[in-house]
Amino acid sequence: MSKITVKVGLASCGIAAGAMEVFEFLKQHQQQNGADFSLTRTACIGMCFEEPIVELSGGDLGRISLGKVEPDQILDYIEDYSQGRRPEANIILTEKRDGSRDNLLGEQTRIVLRNCGVIDPKSIDDYEAHGGYTALKKAMAMSAEEVVGMVKASGLRGRGGAGFPTGLKWSFAAQAKGAKKYVICNADEGDPGAFMDRSTLEGDPHNVIEGMIIGAYAMGADEGYIYCRAEYPMAIKHLRLAIADAQRKGYLGRKILGTNFYFTLHIKEGAGAFVCGEETALMQSIEGKRGMPVIRPPFPAESGLWGCPTNINNVETWANISWIINHGADEFRKIGTEKSPGTKVFALAGKIAGSGLIEVPMGISLRDIIYKVGGGMKTERPFKAVQMGGPSGGCIPASLLDTTVDYDSINATGAIMGSGGMVVMDSSTCMVDVARFFLNFTQNESCGKCTFCRIGTRRMLEILTRITEGQGTMEDIDKLQDLATNIIKGSLCGLGQTAPNPVLTTLRYFKDEYLAHIQEKRCPAGVCTLLLKYEIIPESCIGCTACARVCPTNCISGKVKQAHVIDQDLCIHCGACYKACKFNAIRKG
Amino acid sequence: MEKDFSQLDTILQAYQAKPGILIPLLQEVQNLLGYLSKDAMRYIAEKMHIPVADIYGVATFYSMFKLKPQGRHIIRVCKGTACHVSDADGIKDALRTALRLQKDEDTTMDMKFTLVEVACLGCCSLAPVIMIDDTTFGKLTPEAIPKILERFAFGEEK
Is the pLDDT of residue A382 over 90? Predict the structure, then answer.
C-alpha cells in the first residue's frame, strides 16, 4: 500500500482555530514513533467554519477532508483511513463526492482559488507540479500585443470593486511612452469583512506573482510592487519566500526564461490607512508620503509611481491572468455572464452557516450563494440583509435576493460588487447601527483632503449616533439625504464618493427601522443600548438577587425570594442584569 | 536634543539618500524604540534632511505609528463588520474591565497590555476575534476573556 499523506490547513484562519496544535502533535508523533505517513501543509480551502481541516490521501478511499479536528482524535482517523475504513469523523469533502456536504464546493467554480488548500504555498515545486509558470512560458512565446489582446478578449474586469476592463487598462499602460514602467498589485485589503486577498496570497502566492510577471511582459514594465497590509503577516511571509524562489528559478530578475526580459518585484508593507486602497493614494504611500489621493487625469497609466506609467490591479485580477493565458479567452468567457465573464471570490461572514471563502461563476443569484453555497443561515433567525462592498457598498434586503451577481445588477441595487466581502445579517442586526458603524469607519479613514468627505461624514455620523440614542428627528432623514448627495459630488476619490452608500441603501430598504428609532424611540432589533428597556417579569423572578448585585447604579430593589423591580429612571441600560439572570426573568425590548 | 538617539544611526545610515524610504524607516525605528517620540522624530529629521513636518505628517497619518509608549503585549480587538454584528463591543468591554482600564486609557498601569481597535483582522469566519501579539483568538465570548489574558499576564506566552 502506498504511503498516506496527511495535509493540514495552516492559513491564519486555521491557526486561529487550533490547526497548529494538530500539526505540531502529528510532527511530534512522527519524530517519536517513526513516520508511517507523510505530513504536509497547505493553506485555506475556504471552509473556515470547519477549521481545523485535515486532508488524508493516498489510501483506498481517495482524498478525504476532515473538519473540526482535535489533536487527540487525529491518530485514530489516520489509522481508520489507512485500513480502508471511513473515519467516524466530521467528513466535509470526499474525492468521490458522495459526502452529504459535498455540494459546498460542488456549486463553486475555482479559477483564482484553484490551488488554495490544495498545494503547499511555501513550495514552488508544488506550484509547478500543478501547472505553475506554464502560462508565463506560453505568454512569452507570444508577442506583448497578443497577450494584451488575449486579456482584452477575455472580458476580465477589475476585481478590486469598480470593474474596469483589465485588458483596456493594460493597453493604456502598454501604449504609454516611457523608458521605465511599473506594475503594482493592490493587496491593501481594507474593507472590514473581506479576506479574499489574504487567503489568496497565503494559499497561492506564486499565482499572483506569475500574473504580475505576465503583465509586466505585456506592458513593458521592469519593476513591480505588491502593496500588502501589514495586518497580514503570513501573506507577507509567503510572498517573500515565493519571490526568492521565483528568482532562484529564473522567473524573476535578469534574463527571465533565457530572454532579455527583466523584471524585479518588491513587497511594500502598508502602514494602516484604508484610503491607500485607492490607486493614487497607494502610489503616494509607496513614495513614502501621506496616502492622499491626487486628481486624475493624468491617470496612472500615463503618470503614476514616481511619474512613470504604472498599471495597478487587485490581487484577484492578477490571480486570473495565468488561467486565462493557459485556457484562452474563449474558455474564460464560457464562465459567468456576457458583460461580467469569469468568477468572483467572496468572503462569506456574519450570520451564515458556511462562513469562509467561496468562488462562484458570475451570474449566480444572491439566494444561491447564501442558501446553496453558504449553507443558509447560522441560526433560526430569519435573513434580513446582505452587506456587499464594505464601507463603499450597501445592504441588500431579502426582497432582492434573486439579484444576480454581476457588476451592473449589483450596482442597480445601490450596493456595489466591491472587492468581495459579503456579510450576512439576520433579525438581530439593527440597520441604523450598521449604517452608523460604516460611517464611523469612513469618517475615521477619510484622509481629510476634501471638505465634504472630511466634515460631511462627521456630520452624518453625528446624526446617526443621535438617532441610535433616541434623539433623532424627522428632519435628520432629509439632512442625511442632503449630505449624502453632496459628499458624493464633492469628493475626489472613491472613498468619499461611496461613503454615503451604507446610509443611502439602509434608508432605501429599511426606512421603517429609522422611523422606529425616531418616532417610537425603539430599536426593533434590540441593539441600540439607550433605546432598550429592561423589565423584570414578576412571574418568572424567584428573587435570587443576582441582578441587584451586579447593577452598577443600584437601581434594582426587592427582598430575597420576592420579585424584584427595576427603577427605570435610574437604569442606564447596561444590560448587566439581563446577563446575570439565570431564570429568563428579565425582558429586553 | 535632550536624549541620545545615536542607536538609530545604523538604521538611518542604511536608508540614506534613497527615495520613498520614510515609511519603512519609521517602522524600523518604532520596532527599536517601541514608539515614535517627538524627540526621535526631530532627530531623524535632522539626520535625514527631511522636514520634521513631513515626518510628523506621515507618523500621524498611518495607524501603525504610535506616538505614545506601548504595553508589552498588544491586544487588537477586531471591529470589522462580521465582528461588529457578533458583539465585538461586548468583547471590548470585557477586555477593558479585565484590564481595569479607565476612561480614555488604552495601556495598563503596569505597561503589560495595550488595547487597540483595528478595522479588520481578516478572520471573519471566526468572529468575534482578537489578536494578542501574533496569536489570533476566535469565536470569543466575554466570559472567555479573563482566562486568555491570564496566559499572557503570567508570562506563559512571551
Answer: yes
Residue B113 lies in a domain: yes
Cβ-Cβ contacts under 8 Å, B24 against chain A: 269
- pLDDT over 90 (residue A136): yes
| Whether B51 and B99 share a structural domain | no
Q: CB B19 to CB A355 under 8 A? A: no
Q: Do A16 and B82 touch (CB under 8 A)?
A: no
C-alpha dist (Å) from residue A238 to A128, A146, A397, A466: 16, 31, 39, 46
Q: Among candidates A175, A20, A284, which has minimal Cα distance to B20? A: A284
Cell of B127: 468572529
Strand partners, A185: A226, A313
Burial (CB < 10 A; 0-12, 13-18, 19+), residue A129, is exposed
Query: Is B48's Cβ below 8 Å from some Cβ in A?
Result: no
Chain A residue numbers touching B124 (CB-CB < 8 A): 193-195, 347, 349-350, 355, 421, 423
Q: Please name the helix (run of DSSP H) or strand (run of DSSP E) that holds residue A388, with its range, or none.
A: strand A383-388
Q: Where are the alpha helices (H) located in chain B, listed in sequence order? A: 9-15, 22-33, 38-48, 52-61, 81-84, 88-99, 145-153
Instruction: Enter the ipTM.
Output: 0.87
Q: Which of A465, A201, A442 is nearest to A318 (CA)?
A: A201
Distance CA B137, CA A50 (A): 16
Residue A105 has what pLDDT?
A: 63
> Given this model, what pLDDT does residue A496 score?
95
Q: What is the percentage of chain A residues whose pLDDT exceeds 90? A: 72
Same domain, B94 and B22: no
Cβ <8 Å between A191 and B120: yes
**What digits encode the pLDDT tens for the residues B55-67?**
999 999 999 899 9
A212 shares its domain with A325: yes
A487, three cell numbers: 459628499
B118 touches chain A (CB under 8 A): yes
State the CATH number of the domain containing residue A24: 3.40.30.10
- Model confidence at B141: pLDDT above 80: yes
